[in-house]
Amino acid sequence: MTRVLLSIVLVVIVGYGFVEGWPLLSGPRLVILSPQNGAAVASGILTIAGKAGNAMALTVDGATVIPDTNGSFSETLAFPQGSSILTFTATDRFGRVVRETRQIFVPPTN
Questions:
Q1: pTM for the whole thing?
Q2: Could you give the CA distance from residue 100 to residue 90 in angstroms, rounded to a whole number?
Q3: C-alpha closest to that of 62 among 94, 39, 85, 30
Q4: Contacts (Cβ under 8 Å, ≥6 apart) of 72
Q5: CA distance 52 to 47
Q6: Which of 40, 42, 87, 93 sits in a 20 to 30 Å window from 14, CA-based?
Q7: By C-alpha distance, which of 87, 110, 109 is closest to 41?
Q8: pLDDT tens digits for 53-104?
Q9: Interval 5-30 mean pLDDT
Q10: In terms of residue numbers, what domain contains 58?
Q11: In-domain check, residue 57
């Protein structure tokens, strides 16, 4: 009986440690809500938005973006006419990196 009880307690402790440690094991997460890939931006003014999880650093084309306490971020940027490729990079405290890219197009004004 004692052996079974000890086994159950051990499984609960290991399970709890796994659940609590999963964010450290999984690395950074990055979800881009805006812009959609291939979006046309008539005005050249675009709001980028998304959510970064387990990220110590977040950049868009090398410029630092500061997420709120929930990991959500939003920035308004201006782009020249033509195609632009945005590279979103999230880095965790262990140096693991996740990258997402989005291509946008600003048509010429008449």
A1: 0.77
A2: 9
A3: 85
A4: 49, 50, 51
A5: 16
A6: 93
A7: 109
A8: 999 999 999 999 999 999 999 999 999 999 999 999 999 988 999 999 999 9
A9: 74
A10: 28-106
A11: yes
